[in-house]
Structures are given as C-alpha cells and as structure tokens.
C-alpha cells in the first residue's frame, strides 16, 4: 500500500508540473508569438508512462498456469500442453527456461 501512496504522490507532482509548464507556454506564446512550442502528451498517457517507469512493469494481467497431476486420459495432457504453449507465448518465455518452469507445474504421478 505504501508503494501505491508513493505512486499517487508522484503522479500528482507530475500533473502539477505539467500544468505549470502549460501555463508558462501560454504566457510565453502571448509574449512571443510565432515561437516554436513543444507538444505535451495527454495527461493520461503521461500517467501510464510514469507508472511503467517507476514500477518497471507493463501492467498486463497475470495468467494462472494449472498443475498437471498425470492422467490416463491423453486429452488432459494435450489440453495442459496447449495451455502451457499459450502461457509461454503470452509471457514470451525463452526456450531454455520453459523446461525448468514446466517441471514446477508437475505434481503427483506426472513428476516421477
């Protein structure tokens, strides 16, 4: 919760700073017409960029990966493999890390 509070404070600081910059540019344009001005991205886009920079994340939802306990039904194994393939594609997991991860998702008879 502390991180959320810090992020909110930082966002408020950025918003205030952007407002000051906009006010300064408006005053500057009135005093010096025809000068080059800088476009400021929309405030919502700035918030998203700031949050991503601070947290180092992309805010994509987490995908639940099921355990495989072994089954006599081949369809269960095929379904689980398909889910794992989708997970690896979604998370962009490197090939050398896939086997290590899959081992953590095997239980009971499947882990023998």
TrEMBL record:
Name of the featured protein: Reverse transcriptase domain-containing protein
List the source organism: Taxus chinensis
């Amino acid at each position: 919760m502390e991180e959320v509070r810090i992020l909110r404070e930082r966002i408020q600081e950025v918003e205030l700073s952007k407002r000051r910059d906009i006010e300064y540019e408006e005053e500057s344009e009135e005093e010096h017409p025809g000068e080059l001005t800088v476009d400021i991205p929309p405030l919502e886009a700035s918030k998203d960029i700031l949050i991503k920079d601070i947290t180092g994340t992309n805010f994509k939802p987490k995908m639940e990966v099921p355990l495989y306990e072994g089954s006599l039904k081949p369809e269960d194994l095929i379904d689980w493999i398909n889910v794992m393939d989708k997970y690896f594609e979604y998370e962009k997991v490197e090939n050398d890390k896939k086997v290590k991860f899959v081992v953590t998702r095997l239980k009971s008879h499947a882990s023998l």
